[in-house]
Amino acid sequence: MFITEEDYKVVIGEVALKVISQVSPKNRANAETVALEEISGYLRPKYDCTAIFSARDEQRNKLIVTYACDIALYHMSASMPQKMGSEVRKERYERAVKWLEGVQAGKIVPDLPLAVGEDGLPSGNSFVYSCQKQLHHNW
Asked: 57-107: per-residue pLDDT in tens?
């Protein structure tokens, strides 16, 4: 999987992770899958999500890893009784989504592999600027 046990230590303690995941590897795996798909929804139009999420160890973008952890924890906390610790999770989730929206809008440009078409050129939200030839109406 893209997210490791070590990655969570940046955003949550080991004991708290066990509590929030309800000590179920299945709960954690489901939340991580949802988080990666949510991130892909924002990045897919411009970036190569397959390359982003197949990277391992030091090749992974640390910010994407952190936000993937935050989003996964947010989804795991939704199943907690009385929404324990949901304020922190909600704040971190909203920060992650705000960053992803900034990337999607082109205001933030992360160091991620671009999606390329069959011709090897970047695809997605690429703009080509040009203008028509100026018309001269001399009658």
From this structure: 899 999 999 999 999 999 888 877 766 667 888 899 999 999 999 999 989
Q: So where are the chain's domains?
A: 5-105
- 122 bridge partner residues: 116
Contact 48, 116 (CB under 8 A): yes
Q: How many residues does the chain have?
A: 139
- Class of residue 136 by CB neighbours under 10 A (exposed 0-12, middle 13-18, buried 19+): exposed
Crossing angle of helices 86-105 and 62-77, in 10° steps, is: 140
**What kind and span of H or E run contains 38?**
helix 25-43
3-state helix, strand, coil in the chain (%, to 5): 55, 5, 40
Token pair listed for 20: 């929030």
Residue with tokens 């324990």: 84
Q: Both tokens of residue 120?
A: 């090897």
Q: Quick: pLDDT tens for 91-105.
A: 999 999 999 999 999
Q: What is the pTM of this model?
A: 0.81
